[in-house]
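Thread title: Can someone regenerate the structure for this chain?

I was given the following input by a collaborator and told the matching structure tokens would be attached. They weren't. Posting the sequence so someone can regenerate them.
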Amino acid sequence: MTLHAHSIFDELEATLSKSPRSQRFTILHQMTDLFLIGAKTYSEEQRAIFDAIISRLIVNIERQALIELSARLAPIERAPVNVIGHLSRDDDIKVSGPILECSSVLTDDDLVEIARTKSQDHLSAIAHRARLAEPVTDVLIDRGSSDVARAVTANKGARFSQFGFAKAVERAEQDETLALAVANRVDLPPALFEALVRKATTTVRTRLTANATPELRKRIAEVLSSVSDQVVRASRPGGSAGGGKTTMFRDPARLKANLARYVETRNVPELIDAVAVLCEVPARAVADLVRHRSAEGMIVIGKAGGMAWPELQDVLSVTMPSRMGTPDDRKVLAAKFVELSGENARRAFRFIKTSTAKSAGELLKLI
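Best answer:
Regenerated them for you:
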């Protein structure tokens, strides 16, 4: 500082030492007014003087004064650096919140430090900033609560590193709200989008599909169909379906329990085996129906095998999700299940046993 600046600061120190503590609020308000009047035109030296004076004034001052000061300085592009740094690290979120959410004076290093050491309220404020760099986002998605993770993922101004996206996908496996936010990121790498859909629980997948845009729902269905194709191919001759594993399911009670578990874990090969044994049809026939996306054929098998619609609906949601994409799709298939008579089901069932490669259109002619 210049000699003149030191003189001003000395005079302030003398005034503060003689004035009652309550007078600090008035002096601080006046100094802040004076700074804001010329904030855009002050030189670096003049800003430094204000920074030193205001920093001195806020020592041991009332909480309400700090809250007011924070609100006034947060949107100012050339606000006093040290004052902003002090306010941003205050444990009281009423004081630090506006600075963390709005101030452009804070650097990425400042934000990373605060995100690593302060409360979830502080992290939440940071997560709502208009722009967030990858190092900051990494800390928020790694250390933040569910609310913080959702907020930063939904923030279109937040940039994600590969680590940040991978962590978000991992956390989204059990969190449908976070899963939807992650899936809607246009910058999410395709491989991680596929991992998100693959790893999500059945509940998360169902809600993700229900709340998705048509475009996103289509992408989800494509991933699930690809997964289904892969496991069906694995269940062909030489794979698991149709092999000797079905003998382990002969106990009906155990079969029902396993069926529910395979739905929850989205284990398509085991589902194919379980449905085959339950309905007394070759596993290869079930695998063919899944490969051809023949929900009608599965309805025939389920009806003839004594399955209830809720049970069969769960199986279809895993084995051929593209046929169960919307509530309307599910209603249409449920109506077909209800309308299918036992006689027609048995007739078509015999057809499936002997002609598994036929198309869904040919099957419909029989029912």
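The two ends are 92 Å apart (CA to CA).
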